[in-house]
Amino acid sequence: MDISIDFMRRIAQAAAAETLPRFRAQGAVANKEKGSFDPVTEADREAERAIRALISAEYPDHGILGEEHGSENISSRHVWVIDPIDGTRAFISGLPVWGTLVGLTIDGDAVAGMMAQPFTGELFYANASGSHYEGPGGPRKLTTRKTTKLAEATLFTTTPALFKGEARNRYDAFERQIQLARYGADCYAFAMIASGSVDIVADPGLKPYDIVALIPIIEKAGGVVTTFDGGPAENGGDVLAAATPELHAAAMAALRG
């Protein structure tokens, strides 16, 4: 099945109506994880509520998996996966590198997705017609860079601190082979692979709602998204995305050590 861009725009607008008024507004922040810090805001909860309402009205037989409000009907062949604010830490810090992620899986495969950044007025999306961008500069089809060598690549990771034990040693050796390494940016870094500005994102410990929406955006732009061992990324885990198959293979080998 195909998902229309009009429906994706409606989702983006409904989410933005909840997130934008609360961005840089110094609202209350709760912590979801005892002994650590996993922030959640009213914007997260209300944006997901608005998105779920639209999906349920349009596709009542489809399942939904959301970060803030759990799952419903996930035995369906069609399951929508929602992260209302990917990058809540950036959101509460006033940095516009967060985004609303909504993806659709059919029989477990990510087939359509969108990442909306309402503060910058950007929408990245993928459906049956390919991978596309709408925002400043005008609409265009997304295409990854053709980088094939680690020594010419730009790499993002949330933070090297997420790599533990021997994995950290392998990551450090990997980063030393890279031309430019930067940290943070959450979903925005993955979107930049599709747009041709970033070459690799390596992020351990992702949840399905962190990555499902981004998989088709990157893949339909020419990139590759898997786990570090080359498996499907729809269930999350340690996720590696790269601009080309050759670069992905090189990065995967480097991360294995």
TrEMBL record:
It comes from the Bacteria. Keywords: Hydrolase. The keyword Hydrolase applies. Its EC number is 3.1.3.15. This is Histidinol-phosphatase.
